[in-house]
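Input set for joint prediction.
Command: fold jointly, output tokens.
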Amino acid sequence: MANKLDLLKPRVKRLTLKLLEECKSNGIGIIITQTLRTTEEQNRLYASGRTRPGKIVTNARGGYSFHNFGVAFDFCPVVRGEAVWNDLKLFEKVGKMGKSLGLEWGGDWKSFPDRPHFQFTAGYSLEDFRKNKIDQNKFI
Ligand SMILES: [Zn+2]
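tokens >
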């Protein structure tokens, strides 16, 4: 997991570590399932439920996800050693903790709630990231 976190921008990595600590001290286990995704990985996810079998899991094509810029990660609660994807309350608890640290939680999104997802964008849009119009100092 350590190297996965190293793929995040430093500030986002620190927030992720803080969240892990916070969860631990509240007796909640979580694992970080994904951090940075390459464009190819994102395109493969996008194909799920469209040109590949499975559910639709994202509306973002390759290059159009905050995961592609190292400022987003996904988590899953773990109870007794097992990943638990269907406990909404647990997701909500972790969501709240992350938000109090300054992370944006995907569970709040109205059109496509993404409960395992957190991001820290420093107020920048995807367009800003795509055009590299961001101040990297905000992510150190
Ligand atoms: Zn995500």
